[in-house]
Amino acid sequence: MKRVHVLGLAFAAFACALPAAASPPTPLRAKTLVTEGGHIHAFAQDAGAVAWVGHDYAVHVRRLTAKHGSVVGSASSGYTTVVWQLALAKTQALWTSYDAGNFIYTTVHTGSPTLRERAVFSLSFMPGPAWGSWLAGVAGDGSTLVFGTVNQSCDVEWNCRRLDVTGAVERVGAKATAVVGLPSPYLLATSSGRIALVPAKTPRFFPDVGPPRVAEYAPVQIYDSTGQLISTIVADGTPRAISLDWPKLALLFEFVDGRRQIQLYDARTGGYWFNNGAAVFARVPETVKRISVGVPGTVYSVGNAIYLLRRQQAQLIWRAGSAPIGLSLEGRQIAWAENAHNRGQIKVLNLP
User: How confident is the prediction along the chain (352 residues), in pLDDT tens digits per residue?
Assistant: First the structure.
């Protein structure tokens, strides 16, 4: 195991001096794969397939080589102020539905063209109080489909002064099974059977007794399929998003002054990921919340602009019709959903 503290003042100063993002040297063309007569609520891809939650909340899975997809379940909701969660491993999807009364209820479902839809987990919390159960992300890759749970409990429910967090990473097949030895995650990613996570902060003390969150300078921990720790990474900031394409790990973190940076690491060792002898990192706007890493580098979006980071300079590669949904990189294929003019589309763009 190797722990790495990174990005000192000189490193950060160098990042500030980087030139503005470059445009692609050759024109790229995005292909429209799916068009819906309404907004798409969520999107995910894995090698050779895509999944999406359509305008009618039907969950679709489609192989890229097929002309049509399959409806594998429903994400219908009685509570609409939510962000639908969706992940895909081969052609098995994992998604959420919601309901609300005194509590907000989250149900985790799975299904595929050959596996009938089934609910595999339920969580609930009441808006306002610190205690309850939250979903801590979903992730899929190959034969691995996982989600995280965060369970918060107060020392005294009506006067919460100490908050303790438990939970697990659940691996999903036909049902959900906890991966032994892994802590409750706040951020979660998976690739080639490995699992990367950032633990939820515990314990917490008044007045820090709100919904789950991550600690400042929290570690990124990488585990193998049996739950054994492979490496640990600690960056000079608070983790905001992670993505894993074994053995490459991308981390989006936030400095104490609110600035954000993407850094690439070698998940086998916890050290930097190098390209032609140079570490790969870049400052990004504070609006960046999602990243996805793959063979060419890391993709992210700023508004409707899609960027690729593979050296110490991000490259503008496409402008979508709206802010991309589920922007992801699989192999050399970038894919996302976008909503414009009351119409949803799924786009794919292959990098040379």
Answer: 333 433 333 334 334 434 445 555 557 889 999 999 999 999 999 999 999 999 999 999 999 999 889 999 999 877 666 788 999 999 999 999 999 888 889 999 999 999 999 999 999 998 888 999 999 999 999 999 999 999 999 999 888 999 999 999 999 999 999 999 999 999 999 999 999 999 999 999 999 999 999 999 999 999 999 999 999 999 999 999 999 999 999 999 999 999 999 999 999 999 999 988 889 999 999 999 999 999 999 999 999 999 999 987 899 999 999 999 999 999 999 999 999 999 999 999 999 8
The CATH number that applies at residue 249 is 2.130.10.10
Name which of 229, 242, 80 is nearest 148 in CA terms: 242
SS (H, E, C) the chain: CCEEECCCHHHHHHHHCCCCCECCCCCCCEEEEEEECCCCCEEEEECCEEEEECCCCEEEEEECCCCCCEEEEECCCCCCCCCCCEEEECCEEEEEEEEECCCEEEEEEEECCCCCCEEEEEEEECCCCCCEEEEEEEEEECCEEEEEEEEEEECCCCCCCEEEEEEEEEEECCCEEECCCCCCEEEEEEECCEEEEEECCCCEECCCCCCCCCCCCCCEEEECCCCCEEEEEECCCEEEEEEEECCEEEEEEECCCCCEEEEEEECCCCEECEECCEECEEEECCCCCCCEECCCCEEEEECCEEEEEEECEEEEEEECCCCCEEEEEECCEEEEEEEECCEEEEEEEECC
- On whether the pTM is more than 0.85, the answer is yes
What domain range is 264 assigned to? Answer: 3-350
Q: Domain total for the chain?
A: 1
Would you state the structure tokens that stand for residue 161, as one six-digit string? 């002064």
Give the C-alpha distances (Å, rounded to integers) separating 344 from 39, 214, 319: 5, 33, 16
Q: For residues 35, 73, 197 and 263, what is the CA-based torsion angle, rounded to 10 degrees?
A: 0
Alpha-carbon span 134 to 108, nearest angstrom:
11
